[in-house]
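so i finally got all the pieces together for this one. its two components total, 557 residues if u count the protein bits. some of the lines might not be protein, just check the labels. i wanna see the whole assembly predicted at once instead of chain by chain like last time, that was a mess tbh
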Amino acid sequence: MTAISDRRQLAYIAAQAADARVNVELEAEGMTLNIGPQHPATHGTLRIVARLDGEQVIEADPVMGYMHRGYEKLAEVRTYPQVTTLINRIDWLGSFANEVPFILAAEQLMDIEAPPRARHIRTILFELARIANVTLFLGDMGVQLGAVTPIFYAFRDREHILNQIESATGGRFHPNFDRIGGVKDDLPAGWLAETKQSLGEIRKFCDQMEDLILGNEIFQARTRGIGVIPADVGLSYGLSGANIRSSGVDWDLRRDGAHPGLAYNDVEWRVWTHPDGDSFARYWVRLQEVRESCLIVEQLLDSMPSGPIMAKVPRIIKVPEGEAYVETENPLGVMGYYVVSQGGLEPFRVKIRSASFSNMSISPWLLKGTYVPDVITILASLYFILGDIDR
Amino acid sequence: MPLVPGVVSGLGVTFKEIVKTVTKGAETVQYPHEKEDPAPRARGVIALHEENCTACMLCSRECPDWCIYIEGHKELAPPRRAGGKPRQVNKLDRFDIDYGLCMYCGICVEVCPFEALFWSPEYEYSEPKIADLLHDKTRLGQWMETVPDFEPYEGGAEVKIKKVPR
């Protein structure tokens, strides 16, 4: 092995030099830590490149797009009823909530109003999707802090809600139940009473989580004063949903921008805010919101009007020319669809404003100066879903 | 400082759960040995009632990922009345659904104008080979036995209950 060609020798030298350069970088600018893309604490495939100085994060950079599925482009070659099937998969934990803003935008373009019974069913399923989604967060937050028990309780009690969604729509995760001008089918007999029962289970679950997690001294020590987002910074980054409400901003689109296609104006409830803006506040606000959702659903179940579930809609849906932007308060925050139609069977362009993408964009600012174990809790408390970020 | 430390009340929750599990039994269902009944509306598998199908291709066109394959031919059937002209009817040659592609959205069942497609809550048809997930019309016809009757609706509904052809 004496004769090494010139080219090999050059390659060897170049590799040595590159190695040396990396070592110099490590010494000069601290260590680079890759969290993800496959990491149990990142809810999917999110990669965070963190530069560390000892245990402190100097700079954190989220790398998104590992799960990009191109829904905006796919929607352009599908008719309006077909699009709801696709967008179900954006935020997979609260699927029904994804369909609502798109359908509302199409209804606005076509100038159709859903009948009151359809509005009620739609709003009930919207809130059930929120409960199913946030319930999992309430348990998941414990796992991020090293407590494994809560997630089992969360999965168990979420099942009550998923069963109700399944018996009404046919799908546990992907209902595909919302239609332009109403909903697909009416509710099966006995559904209202069963749903009330399962709401009781969720209320019990909320009390359990309050005792198990919220009151726990270790949890409070790990979350109080950690990852504080002041209201003005949060607003400038476009935070929405429970994340901004926990910074003291009293803003909820269910109350402030209620769309006529949803029945939120018929019920009495309140918006919870917290002045602190830390991880603890975000957990607390979400816990109260699940209870408030139970209250909304209960009132809607009691006041279910009778009548048709579909407005008069042509058999072949052609949306007239125009554009509409509708946003609603989804489980993760404000979700909006900007639909441009050119009068055809398919939308010309669909822009999806998903909540998690904006919620995630604050992380470089938020993670600066925190410690490595807190990175996980802060990311968990921001509560994003990867499908919602990358769509 | 609260009266009872948070750690202790948290342990109380888990202790109550243990007592509940020991006395009332666990909520876990040991799947292959015992099974839960899915809801009658559950979208498990699509069944085909072949006599009603006219090969109109509506389901195939409306499918969001185009996983239904239909072929048919026209045939002359004897006239309904004596002395009339022979009728032209569509006969189904091939009706395949590729469950490897299907998104279980139910649009095909919804758009079918002749009530030939139905949802069945049956879910145990996984295959070791992905090519075997392509169900042909005899396999889809066998699922018809498992289709449950449509449930009655909640009070106040104006929708008519449909009937499953047997």
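Chain A has one domain: 63-390.
The beta strands of chain A are 31-35, 47-53, 56-63, 178-179, 182-183, 322-330, 333-341, 349-353.
anyway lmk what u think
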